[in-house]
Write a structure and sequence with these properties.
With about 160 residues, this protein is mostly beta strands. It starts with a helix and ends with a strand. Strand 3 (about 55) and strand 4 form a beta hairpin. It contains 1 helix and 11 strands. The strands form 4 sheets. A 4-stranded antiparallel beta sheet has the order 8-7-10-11, with no helix packed on it. It has a 3-stranded antiparallel beta sheet with strand order 5-6-9, with no helix packed on it. The protein is elongated, with a radius of gyration of 28 Å. The protein has a domain at about 85-160: Immunoglobulin-like, CATH 2.60.40.10. The protein has one helix at about 1-20, and strands at about 30-40, 40-45, 55, 60-65, 85-90, 95-100, 110-115, 120-125, 130-135, 140-150, 150-160.
């Protein structure tokens, strides 16, 4: 009777081992990850996913993996009818950003710095060929810098703050 009990346990162990060998779970090799939460909810994220699979067909393609990112950026560079050379540097930045205006001759320019939700961070007149925008106190994020002349948006820049 004891021999039957041992055989039964071995068979159950063997069967459960076979069943669990076919079970699959979501796994990924990533360099970092974390859970973030706030008043608006919570999210899990991973950084540096090393392996994923892309399936392609006649109707499109699908990337299969863990936590695939999805971002939408619509930044338009409007045609500059006034032929004003504008540049922003350094970008990305850790502190300040310089706005360089070529051929500045009192053109009544101003800028608006917005976050990605469209909230106004700063608005000021551009009174020199080089204007410094302090960003040291802003959180790490992506911002939009819109340049206006006579209330018309003549150029937009995407600025990344580290």
């Amino acid at each position: 009777m004891q021999m039957n009990t041992i055989k039964t346990k071995l068979w159950m162990l063997l069967i459960s081992g076979i069943c669990f060998s076919f079970a699959q779970g979501q796994t990924a090799t990533v360099s970092a990850g974390m859970n973030a939460s706030g008043s608006g909810g919570s999210a899990s994220f991973s950084v540096g996913q090393l392996n994923y699979v892309t399936q392609s067909g006649t109707n499109g393609s699908s990337a299969q993996g863990v936590q695939q990112p999805y971002e939408i950026f619509i930044v338009s560079v409007l045609e500059n009818q006034y032929n004003i050379a504008l540049s922003v540097y350094p970008n990305p930045t850790e502190g300040k950003v310089n706005l360089q205006v070529g051929d500045f001759k009192n053109k009544k320019l101003f800028y608006q710095l917005l976050d990605m939700q469209g909230r106004l961070i700063e608005k000021a007149e551009i009174s020199e060929m080089q204007t410094e925008l302090p960003m040291q106190n802003l959180p790490q994020a992506t911002y939009l810098l819109n340049i206006y002349q006579n209330e018309k948006n003549i150029q937009s820049f995407k600025i990344i703050k580290h």
